[in-house]
# Entry
Amino acid sequence: MGKLSLRSIIILTIPTLFWVVGLLFSNIWWQENILSVTAIPFLFYCLALILTLFLRNTLQFIFCLPFLLLWGYVHPLDNSSSLPLCPQTLKVFQYNLRYENPNLDPLFYYLQQYPHHLLVFQETTPEHGSMLKEALKAQYPYQFGGQPRIGYPSGQLVLSQYPLFNMKTIATQAGHQIIHGVWHPPKYKPIELYTAHPPSPRNAQLWAERNALLETLNNLVEDYLDTDNASPAQLIVGDFNLSSTSERYQALFGGFKSNPVSSWPNWSGLRQYLTIAIDHLWAHYPLEICEREALINMAGSDHRPIVTYLTMHRSDQPK
# Structure
């Protein structure tokens, strides 16, 4: 049976207490970053549970198990989630290419074999952008990014099988760009599209700039939805450098749905359940997310690409 000593209780409780107390003081850049990596306590409790089995200490095992289940729930293990029925699917492909990506051939091969309706890229260099636009222009004739005086706003490129209207950029005070326009697949109502790539919060300044962009985008979406002629179908896509387990993530885009999928870092040998979700997509009714899935066999970037399957409710489609 074994014993459950006070020392064992303290050791097994400290990681959870640290996270709970830390959430009360998470308005510090490094602290918010650490608290966002819920794989740390999850892995701790996995190892602790294995140790209790090895020591044959039943009481410690029973005490540890609820903590493991808690962190398994907070840090989802599943690669994707789906609805049982998803008619008339729209497919959105999103991918942070990584500026230093030496080889896009696997990406070209995948996109030619498995076409999607909308492609949204981040960390696109001019060389990457030129190759993508040229190689995929037959399949994706509607493009935003790479044009004169536009370039690649915050490294972003949007390619589509279907028309893109009124595409423009909106800059934050720090100069980070949000792309905003209308995406109009046939047989669907127009979809208001937003894409963004705020900076990685690796220091206090970039953390503040990321948060300012998130606030700007959140206000932009809310203000648009409050207008008289607003289209209810809204889509927000990008690498937001924000973990889905953070409190800040939970406060964004009220009324939108998002299924987080772990996608970073894409390191060789690192299991997906030890990664975090920072590449996001939000959809507003009548759009609905049917499924999101990270592709695990794409090399060249520190991010995994994500495919999202969407549907629009029939009652809200044009006749």
Remarks:
- The CA atoms of residues 182 and 192 lie 5 Å apart.
